Each structure stands twice: as structure tokens, then as C-alpha cells.
């Protein structure tokens, strides 16, 4: 098993006033040649957006974009006729940019900030028809068990959102002093594990809030939660 630890304190940062961003991988003005991607995972941004602010209309193409609000509410508009759609904490949004789409993502509150994860995954199909979807996922359904949020559009319906890549995004909330065994789709896949809250032990490595670890060249691994912990798993092909 091959592992690489990504400490929260070593992420790229940017403060634009209205936006405070933490970049797990090279993005915008932050560039680190050792942190360009993890397999097909290209972007994992941990953004805090001020009340009433956000990302104005801008274009994307040939990218699978996933947004997970952790606190607050987002407002989405795009060139696919989706206008002012709210995305609440507990929901997940996906957008296949494909042949090209324009969209905006704004804080839906005039008084409260929003904290969200923005994830980009490189697709396995180019120039697809753009598509959009969102879904609410109950917290109770991931208590000490894996909750799949996003999976491949080529797989059977399992209640998750679908993207154009052989990937899987999932969450689990582990109780203190509990264990969980994660099984990968294949040894050609890797998993980027982000600690949203809490503390875990993997391969004798202690990871705290917003620390992450990339794991590959294995079929499974064990996570031990030393505190009540919320985890995000992003499993992607390492060669694409």
C-alpha cells in the first residue's frame, strides 16, 4: 500500500476578502508541482464565501464538478436554464460541463457565510451533453456506514448522483473508538481521504481536521476513529 499525507496546514491558501480558499491541489494563483492532482481528482477546494457573495458567471468544459455545502446555502444558475436553484447543507450538486456550460454559484444568504467543498474530477468521456443534478443525503444514513454520494453514470442506479468517470465519492460519520474497512473498486484506483471533522488513525498516521491522505496500490485499508469523526472519501482511477 502506497500512502501520501496532505496536512491541512500545508494546503495552498488565498484570501480575496469575500472568499477565503484552501487548495488541496494547484489552483488559480497557487501552484505546487507536487500537488497537481491525485489520479483523476484535479481539484478539492475548501471555500468560505461571505454573505451575498460568490462566483459570478463563468465557463467550464470537459470537467465533472461536484459541490458539497458543509455549512450554509448556495444559489446556482447556469446556461442549461437552471435559475436560482438553492443547494442546502446536506445536499450535493453535480455538473457535467461536457461541451461547455456557463454557471454562477452564489451564497444564498445575505447575512451568513457558507463553507463548501468544490471538487473537480477529470472525466472519462469528452464533449458530452452538459447535465446538472442535485440530491439531499440524510446524515443518519452515514452513521458508522458508508454513504455513496456520487458514482459512475455507467453503473446501475444506487441512489447516488452520477458523473462521467469510474469514480466514487462517499461520506461516513464514525463514532469515537470505532473502526471501518474501506474496500476499493480495484487496485487501479486510489482514494483521497479527507478528515472533515475529528481525528483518525490510518497506517499509524494520525490525521486531524482537514488533514488528508492519498492511498493507492491496495484493495482495502482500515480507518480507526480516535474521536467522533466525519470523513470524505474520493476514489478515482489513478491512470486515466
UniProtKB/TrEMBL annotation:
Its cofactor is Fe cation. SUPFAM superfamilies: RmlC-like cupins. InterPro entries: Pirin (IPR012093), Pirin_N_dom (IPR003829), Quercetinase_C (IPR041602), RmlC-like_jellyroll (IPR014710), RmlC_Cupin_sf (IPR011051). One of its GO terms (molecular function) is metal ion binding. Residues 13-121 form the Pirin N-terminal domain. Keywords: Iron, Metal-binding. Residues 149-236 form the Quercetin 2,3-dioxygenase C-terminal cupin domain. It holds the Pfam family Pirin. Binds 1 Fe cation per subunit. Fe cation binds at residues 58, 60, 103, 105. Belongs to the pirin family. This is Pirin family protein. It comes from Lutibacter oceani.
Amino acid at each position: 500500500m502506497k500512502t501520501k499525507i496532505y496536512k491541512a496546514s500545508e494546503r495552498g491558501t488565498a484570501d480575496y476578502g469575500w472568499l477565503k480558499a484552501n487548495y488541496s491541489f494547484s489552483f488559480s494563483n497557487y501552484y505546487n508541482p507536487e500537488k497537481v492532482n491525485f489520479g483523476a481528482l484535479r481539484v478539492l477546494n475548501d471555500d468560505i464565501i461571505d454573505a451575498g457573495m460568490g462566483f459570478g458567471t463563468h465557463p467550464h468544459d470537459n470537467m465533472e464538478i461536484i459541490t458539497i455545502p458543509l455549512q450554509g446555502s448556495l444559489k446556482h444558475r447556469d446556461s442549461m436554464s437552471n435559475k436560482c436553484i438553492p443547494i442546502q447543507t446536506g445536499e450535493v450538486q453535480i455538473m457535467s460541463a461536457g461541451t461547455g456550460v456557463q454557471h454562477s454559484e452564489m451564497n444564498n444568504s445575505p447575512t451568513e457565510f457558507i463553507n463548501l467543498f468544490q471538487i473537480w474530477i477529470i472525466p472519462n468521456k469528452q464533449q458530452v451533453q452538459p447535465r446538472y443534478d442535485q440530491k439531499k443525503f440524510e446524515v443518519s444514513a452515514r452513521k458508522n456506514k458508508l454513504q455513496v454520494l456520487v458514482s459512475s453514470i455507467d453503473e446501475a442506479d444506487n441512489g447516488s448522483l452520477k458523473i462521467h468517470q469510474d469514480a466514487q465519492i462517499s461520506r461516513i460519520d464514525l463514532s469515537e473508538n470505532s473502526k471501518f474497512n474501506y474496500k476499493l473498486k480495484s487496485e487501479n484506483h486510489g482514494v483521497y481521504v479527507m478528515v472533515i471533522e475529528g481525528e483518525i488513525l490510518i497506517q499509524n498516521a494520525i490525521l486531524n481536521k482537514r488533514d488528508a491522505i492519498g492511498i493507492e496500490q491496495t484493495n482495502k485499508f482500515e480507518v480507526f476513529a480516535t474521536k467522533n469523526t466525519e470523513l470524505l472519501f474520493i476514489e478515482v482511477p489513478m491512470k486515466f
